[in-house]
């Protein structure tokens, strides 16, 4: 089963139009919710006024004063209110202040504009520079949402003696997840015998995050809150933390009205107010000896965290832990800061900080190669991590790691050397089209950072059903990545059963245990491993209780499960995460095994630039990655291809334009994601190297493909156009033209 | 102006008559009045193609079609592609080639691809890319969708 390209479990429903997404749920008597948001980036809310001419008595109206429990969204840091109350501070342009609901959704939308907020405006800070410069202090004493330092050796002792010291500064912009299905929630609150019971159905990655948020919002115990994950039209991190906010809003309206509530954002609202990838600025200082051996790296990594902490502390952590890249270096210093600004808070997005810091490192390595007079292949090969080497946190590489081989394979696949030589000649000719090839080498840590998996202590299980089949109990959600299929394959393999005999249970917190959030490239490796253990425990229990004899066939297994269910009523077996004995992490010092393991990759791109219009065409894209054993090659390939498409978008086209911190190109018309006409076929090569921590040897895949494309593309652009200052993404045609003019104007 | 108008049309081969808001969009009528929720709304402005349906045999974004323009028309949605339990060759190819990941663009993509294969039974990669350029997908990078369309085309050719 593991290694087979089984068809997606929910594939038939998806192609038939019967898969039920949140807004597809038919809810008789539902009223429609809308959110009234602030229209200033910072100020004190003085009053809320309802204009004449609207039948307000027909509306359900919720303000901060109505909130029954804590007006605070449960998250890493408890700092964000569900709604701003009178006398409290508004901290960004899209801050929710009032919730309205009405049976007629058109009238609800109209009413939103008939609520006027009286605000005493305060000066706002809108970018990293203004926040670091303390132009206004808006968060704590120093505007820092989180600060991390990682130290290995001491780079300060190296600078003076090194043959070469090379510095650079790199920037990355915000990026919108642009899941095709906007954020959506349905809520019902039942009040019976003085008991409140809250149920939310939604488009959400992490049912237990929303569960925790609702408990705190309403002051209810575990068993009075229920969260159900509906079919999800994409997420990419965009439905990791935000659903705690809009899930709470929908539930508040349902609680106040006593009616079911639908709260579905249209595209413009979704783009303006929900989370994005954190903008970043990275300063790198590197020292090399005369031969190009890396001696020291100092990294100053800053991300814009917006008005509240949301996921910024952990995004910063992953960014910091990937910042030194795939290189062996005796002296490393990382200073990482997430700063507050008066902008709608960014959050999780595939890659989670790593694409930002790896973009800087992998662009910088090409810059350094040029300055050292080496080629980018040779410089990297001299400095790659190998088995036995130590990373910045002191983590020792314990697996066989052949980054040189990985790189060579990618360069062979794209024909790197021949193309470079050929383009060097053709680019000399007149004509507007210039071609280049470039690449990046990178890694992505699998699972939660540091002690994260130990804190989560995830639980997942398997259950025997009355018909003799096996059902998987986990809160991990399907967002298109293939969780339903891959989990079923892992359990089928562990039980030696056909794939068709295993399926996943509906993700409903009343039914499934907390297997942790569906994030961080952790589901296959971490939850899959727990399921493998649970499945084996399930089989052993059947054998011990006399329901099953080994060896068994699918039919005898089915008969055994049927008999067990008939006899015992319910047969389930759970497993829980156990930290492998050989990994250790210290949160206080940032020393130890930052991740149980990493997936490794080299991506190579060929570009053609049209210098008449500065349009960049991606002609070819090759990905070679080592991700442990691949559970389902076709689904894994789809993950890589889709991630690369998002990475190409981030590198070249996807620009979030803001005014007073608010996205103003908040439409699909003017925020440009790749269409089928914009992309080449993406070549996917898996080099398999089974890892003991994952089920059947699997490691994480989901985020890896987001990390490599942007630096590979910009390195290819430099190959095509010469040493331009390509230190920023997205490298849009406008920006590329400016950088070309910098050179021609000296 | 009347509050409601009577709309008569044929949807997936079935004659339907219903009372709708005069400014309703075809998308709303399909989803809210006929409960044909396979057709999705991704942007509401004709950019993403998730709401693509066939209107009198032509591909349209149903979010941009006012109901007054569909009086007496014939509409095919994703629910109309299968013959009973039998998926169309294109639907089946989307399942076996992993052409649907999150599945939200899939109904519109299938309608657009069905139309493409009607017009162009053996398309090249380039023709498929052009034919589906009005349908955004954020999950696949499009390669598996191309595979599925090629495979369905080969099946048709045979």
Characterise the protein shown here.
Chain A has 19 helices and 28 strands. By secondary structure, chain A is an alpha+beta fold. In chain A, strands 3-5-1-12-9-10-11 form a 7-stranded mixed sheet, with helices on both faces. Chain A has a 6-stranded mixed sheet with strand order 7-15-14-13-8-28. The longest helix of chain A has 22 residues, at 523-544. The radius of gyration of chain A is 26 Å and the shape is globular. Chain B contains 5 helices and 5 strands. Chain B has a 5-stranded mixed sheet, sandwiched between helices. In chain B, β3 and β4 (58-61) form a beta hairpin. The longest helix of chain B has 15 residues, at 143-157. Chain B is elongated. The N and C termini of chain B lie far apart (54 Å). The mean pLDDT of chain B is 95. At the A-B interface, α1 and α16 of A face α2, α3, α4 and α5 of B.
């Amino acid at each position: 089963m593991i290694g087979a390209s089984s068809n997606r479990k929910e594939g038939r429903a998806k192609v038939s139009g019967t898969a039920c997404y949140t807004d597809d749920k038919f809810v008789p008597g539902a009223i429609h919710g809308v959110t009234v948001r602030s229209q200033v980036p910072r100020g004190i809310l003085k009053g809320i006024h309802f204009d004449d001419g609207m039948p307000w008595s027909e509306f359900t109206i919720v303000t901060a004063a109505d909130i029954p429990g804590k007006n605070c969204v449960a998250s890493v840091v408890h700092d964000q209110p569900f709604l701003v109350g009178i006398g409290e501070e508004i901290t960004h342009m899209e801050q929710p202040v009032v919730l309205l609901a009405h049976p007629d959704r058109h009238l609800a939308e109209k009413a939103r504009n008939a609520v006027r907020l009286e605000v005493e405006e305060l000066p706002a800070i809108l970018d990293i520079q203004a926040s670091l410069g303390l132009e206004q202090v808006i968060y704590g004493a120093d505007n820092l949402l989180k600060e991390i330092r990682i130290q290995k050796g001491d780079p300060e002792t190296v600078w003076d003696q090194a043959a070469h010291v090379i510095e650079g500064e790199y920037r990355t912009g915000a990026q919108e997840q642009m899941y095709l299905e906007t954020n959506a929630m349905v809520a019902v609150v039942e009040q019976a015998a003085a008991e409140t019971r809250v149920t939310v159905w939604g488009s959400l990655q992490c049912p237990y995050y929303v569960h925790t948020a609702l408990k705190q919002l309403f002051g209810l115990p575990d068993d009075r809150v229920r969260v159900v994950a509906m079919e999800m039209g994409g997420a990419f991190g965009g439905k990791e933390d935000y659903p705690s906010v809009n899930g709470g809003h929908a539930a508040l309206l349902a609680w106040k009205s006593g009616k079911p509530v639908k709260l579905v954002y249209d595209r413009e609202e979704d783009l303006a107010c929900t989370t994005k990838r954190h903008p970043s600025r990275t300063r790198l200082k590197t020292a090399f000896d005369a031969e190009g051996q890396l001696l020291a790296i100092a990294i100053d990594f800053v991300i814009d965290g917006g008005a509240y902490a949301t996921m910024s502390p952990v995004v910063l952590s992953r960014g910091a832990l990937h910042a030194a890249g795939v290189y062996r270096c005796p002296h490393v210093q990382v200073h990482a800061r997430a700063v507050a600004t008066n902008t709608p808070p960014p959050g999780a997005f595939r890659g989670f900080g790593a694409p930002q810091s790896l973009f800087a490192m992998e662009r910088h390595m090409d810059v350094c190669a040029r300055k050292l007079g080496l080629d980018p292949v040779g410089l990297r090969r001299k400095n790659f991590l190998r088995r036995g080497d130590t990373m910045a946190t002191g983590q020792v590489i314990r697996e066989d790691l052949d980054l040189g081989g990985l790189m060579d394979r990618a360069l062979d696949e794209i024909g790197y050397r021949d193309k470079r030589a050929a383009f060097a000649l053709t680019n000399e000719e007149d004509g507007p089209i210039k071609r280049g090839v470039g690449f990046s080498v990178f890694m992505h840590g699998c699972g939660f950072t540091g002690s994260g998996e130990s804190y989560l202590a995830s639980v997942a299980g398997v259950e025997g059903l009355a018909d003799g089949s096996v059902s998987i109990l986990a809160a991990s959600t399907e967002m298109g990545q293939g969780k339903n299929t891959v989990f079923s394959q892992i359990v089928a393999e562990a039980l030696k059963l056909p794939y068709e005999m295993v399926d996943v249970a509906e993700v409903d917190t009343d039914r499934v245990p907390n297997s942790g959030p569906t994030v961080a490239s952790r589901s296959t490796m971490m939850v899959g491993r727990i399921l493998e253990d649970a499945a084996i425990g399930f089989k052993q229990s059947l054998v011990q209780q006399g329901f099953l004899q080994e060896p068994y066939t699918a039919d005898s297994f089915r008969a055994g499960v049927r008999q067990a269910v008939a006899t015992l009523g319910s047969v389930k077996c759970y497993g829980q995460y156990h930290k492998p004995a050989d990994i250790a992490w210290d949160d206080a010092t940032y020393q130890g095994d930052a991740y149980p393991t990493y997936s490794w990759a080299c991506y190579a791109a060929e570009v053609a630039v049209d210098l008449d219009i500065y349009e960049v065409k991606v002609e070819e894209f090759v990905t070679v990655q080592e991700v442990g054993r691949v559970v389902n090659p076709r689904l894994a390939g789809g993950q890589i291809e889709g991630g690369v498409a998002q990475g190409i978008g981030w590198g070249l086209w996807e620009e979030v334009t803001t005014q007073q911190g608010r996205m103003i190109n908040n439409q699909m018309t003017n925020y440009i994601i790749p269409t089928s006409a914009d992309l080449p076929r993406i070549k996917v090569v898996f080099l398999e190297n089974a890892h003991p921590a994952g089920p059947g040897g699997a490691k994480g895949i989901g985020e890896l493909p987001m990390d490599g494309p942007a630096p590979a593309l910009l390195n290819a652009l430099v190959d095509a156009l010469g040493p331009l200052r390509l230190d920023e993404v997205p490298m849009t045609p406008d920006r590329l033209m400016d950088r070309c003019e910098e050179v021609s104007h000296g | 102006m009347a509050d409601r108008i009577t709309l008569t049309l044929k949807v997936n081969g079935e004659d339907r008559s219903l009372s709708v808001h005069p400014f309703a969009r075809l998308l709303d009528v399909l989803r809210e009045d006929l409960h044909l929720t396979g057709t999705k709304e991704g942007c509401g402005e004709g950019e993403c193609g998730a709401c693509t349906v066939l209107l009198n045999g032509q591909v349209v974004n149903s979010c941009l079609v006012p109901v007054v323009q569909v009086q007496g028309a014939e509409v095919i949605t994703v629910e109309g592609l299968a013959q009973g339990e039998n998926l169309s060759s294109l639907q089946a190819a989307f399942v076996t080639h992993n052409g649907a990941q999150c599945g939200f663009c899939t109904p519109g993509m299938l309608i657009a691809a069905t139309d493409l294969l009607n017009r162009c039974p053996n398309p090249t990669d380039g023709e498929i890319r052009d034919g589906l350029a009005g349908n955004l997908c954020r999950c696949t990078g499009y390669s598996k969708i191309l595979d599925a369309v090629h495979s369905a085309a080969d099946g048709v050719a045979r």
